[in-house]
Automatic annotation (TrEMBL):
Pfam families: BPD_transp_1 (PF00528). Belongs to the binding-protein-dependent transport system permease family. HisMQ subfamily. InterPro entries: AA_ABC_transptr_permease_3TM, ArtM/GltK/GlnP/TcyL/YhdX-like, MetI-like, MetI-like_sf. It is found in: Cell membrane. Residues 1-21 are annotated as: Disordered. Residues 88-281 form the ABC transmembrane type-1 domain. The chain crosses the membrane at residues 40-60, 94-115, 127-150, 162-182, 263-284. It comes from Kitasatospora purpeofusca. This is Amino acid ABC transporter permease. It is a multi-pass membrane protein. Keywords: Amino-acid transport, Cell membrane, Membrane, Transmembrane, Transmembrane helix, Transport. Its main location: membrane.
Length: 298
């Protein structure tokens, strides 16, 4: 008579009827529960003591009263919050538009750098020079050159709006970083995948589009989201050109009141936007690692 089958994996199969765990197993499980509770209590106590020590260090410092007046004024926070939120719309629009352009340009650069054959050498060199240049160029310098240098050229048909020029600087710089992420994903796909696709009659472009790129993009989603988090924060740098975003709105109120609380309000708004995206990125990374360890698709 054949053994009864079950839909559960062998390690999670239902216990037979009337099964009672042994005393040793019960003791081991009780020990693990006690150890978990003890670890949680120690972690909570350690965190609480550290937080209390830091608060006591800051509050007990000689300059704390002046810092409290300058950075923690409830009155100026109420004044700044509506203006900061109004300026935040510029940052969010800039992140959305620049994010799409960065993905497209970064993917194009990555594909150009992975082309093989002597005929594509000039293209590979140009893409490599572009990536190396903007990887080494500080973001603030790129913004200053775009916002102040391009209008000085007086080119016909070229905008002088600092918002557009600042966005262009973000795209140029971040595309270099994103292209390296995409290139790492493309090179992580085993060459046999491309060879198998070519053996089935697909051209190189078709094999890249239907076989290599889908796998590569799926593997690099977490680092791409990390770049998006950085982009979200760096959109505040366009304020150096006079764009009234969240940072510049805080600067205007600070210039009127000589109180720095608006900067703290802007910082907390950016943190409130960044933390959920950062946690989501961590969850995606953990899920990808778990699937890879379990033999699933990466």
């Amino acid at each position: 008579m054949s053994a009864e089958r079950t839909d559960l994996p062998p390690t999670k199969a239902a216990a037979p009827a009337g099964y009672r765990p042994s005393a040793r197993r019960l003791a081991r499980e009780a020990f693990r529960r006690r150890r978990a509770r003890r670890s949680a209590l120690i972690a909570a106590a350690s965190t609480l003591l550290t937080a209390v020590a830091l608060v006591a260090l800051v509050v007990g410092s000689p300059g704390w009263p002046a810092v409290r007046r300058s950075f923690f004024s409830a009155e100026y926070a109420r004044q700044a919050l509506p203006e900061v939120l109004k300026g935040l719309r510029i940052n969010l629009e800039l992140m959305a538009v620049c994010g799409v352009l960065i993905l497209l340009l970064g993917l194009l650069l990555a594909v150009l750098r992975t082309l093989r054959g002597p005929v594509f050498l000039p293209v590979r060199l140009l893409a490599t020079v572009y990536v190396d240049f903007f990887l080494g160029l500080p973001m603030i310098i790129c913004l200053l050159v775009m916002i102040t240098g391009v209008p000085a050229l007086r080119l016909t048909g070229v905008t002088t709006d600092p918002l557009w020029l600042g966005g262009a600087a973000l795209v140029l710089t971040y595309a270099a970083y994103v292209s390296e992420v995409f290139r790492a994903g493309i090179e992580s796909v085993h060459p046999s995948q491309l060879a198998a696709a070519r053996s089935l009659g697909l051209s190189h472009a078709q094999a890249m589009r239907f076989v290599v790129l889908p796998q590569a993009v799926r593997r690099v989603v977490p680092p791409l989201l990390n770049n998006l988090v950085s982009l979200q924060k760096d959109t505040g740098l366009v304020s150096i050109g006079g764009v009234i975003d969240a940072v510049y709105a805080a600067k205007i109120i600070n210039g009127r009141s000589f109180n720095s609380t608006p900067y703290l309000v802007a910082a907390l708004v950016f943190v409130a936007l960044t933390v959920p995206l950062t946690r989501f990125t961590g969850w995606l990374t953990a899920r990808a690692d778990r699937r890879r360890y379990e033999g699933g698709l990466s």
